[in-house]
Amino acid sequence: MKPTPEPTPDPIPEQKNSPKKAKAGRPSQDTQSREQLILAARSLFVERDYAQVSTRELAKKAGTDPALIRYYFGSKEGLFSTMIRETAVPVKQQLWQLNRSLGADGPANFMLTYYRVMAAHPHFPRLIFKLASLDQSQAKNQELAQAFNEIINLEDLLFFDKFKSQGLLREEVDSRCAQLSFFAMMVFPFLVPDIFLNKLGVEISPEFLQQLATQNSQLLAHGLFKPEVTSHEPK
Amino acid sequence: MKPTPEPTPDPIPEQKNSPKKAKAGRPSQDTQSREQLILAARSLFVERDYAQVSTRELAKKAGTDPALIRYYFGSKEGLFSTMIRETAVPVKQQLWQLNRSLGADGPANFMLTYYRVMAAHPHFPRLIFKLASLDQSQAKNQELAQAFNEIINLEDLLFFDKFKSQGLLREEVDSRCAQLSFFAMMVFPFLVPDIFLNKLGVEISPEFLQQLATQNSQLLAHGLFKPEVTSHEPK
């Protein structure tokens, strides 16, 4: 809970078999500890809320000493933001590749590729939502705010202003309302409480997500775009 | 954290100026304390997560003794479930009256009345979402699970199976997917992190909610219903 987060670990004398030096060959016990801490953080921060998870619990779940959190990541904030950055790398890469291979553009197609990738990483939208929900105006959360801004470029997701100005949307559609409902459909399936899912008889499986993606992209196409635009979209 | 929640307060001898007796005339200091605890609970549980709020904080915010939580509500669970039940009464009443006065039926119209009522109670969907997100299989949360089931009858909200069987939905629409996206649009605007809202330039004001309601009901009508059904809906 430091007012100014330290991006670098504590200066431990490097002669002392520093884990940062152990890059070649097999993973040392120490780099395994770092990896275990990342895995423990992913598991605990997906399940519970940020403030509820203590460094002691994180270390216990990872089977390491709590001091290693400070050594590798500076603080709990540092561990959380490193974990979420490392989690984001393959997700963003897959999303980018899939978008490119499908020549996907527009929110309906983006939603298809997004759900397809998130089916393999269902914890990711939940983590991003939690990260975004922290009070980023607080000094202690600045490191987390920075991680959020590095991972998510919200500008890239603001499709609807562009579509509005291109005259593709129905006359009555407000682009901000459209954007908000688009975010709702993207994020909510990964946040929805089990009690709702059980009542609906739904499991957030890859198969269900694929079906939901197809239907939601149709919902957007019919519900927000002019009929003559929709009829040109791939079915 | 009792395995079996007690619905009644501890048996304090009634001769001793019990607050339960002070029903007539001005509110006594004690009934004011009960009210202050309800208000403190609403404020703290809206802002923060259930596990993060302690009875000590609740009492401090209410300006009362923590022992009164046990006296009036049995436990933190009891205070939370009582607060949410009492919060729900006017919300559900307004929703029912508005639905009746507008002769509203169907999800598009329901969404209009729902947003109109929630504009005056923006904390309510958030509290319900938090209540629904608690692990209700845990014994300590049973009292909360019971409150949830009393307040929300999910069956009443499962419109889309009925519409599907009445042949009103587009052929390709799956009623479970439709239902999930309907819930997403209903709940997400009250959960969305400020960082998204700021980027969108949106404030969740009554005016914005009215606009969103109108647009989302159109989105559902055009996106899920057969065109011949939609054309009969009020514009």
From TrEMBL, chains A, B:
Residues 1-33 are annotated as: Disordered. SUPFAM superfamilies: Homeodomain-like. The keyword Ion transport does not apply. It comes from the Bacteria. Residues 31-91 form the HTH tetR-type domain. Residues 1-12 have a biased composition (Pro residues). Residues 54-73 bind DNA. It holds the Pfam family TetR_N. Keywords: DNA-binding. One of its GO terms (molecular function) is transcription cis-regulatory region binding. Gene3D superfamilies: Tetracycline Repressor, domain 2. This is Regulatory protein, TetR. It comes from Shewanella denitrificans (strain OS217 / ATCC BAA-1090 / DSM 15013).
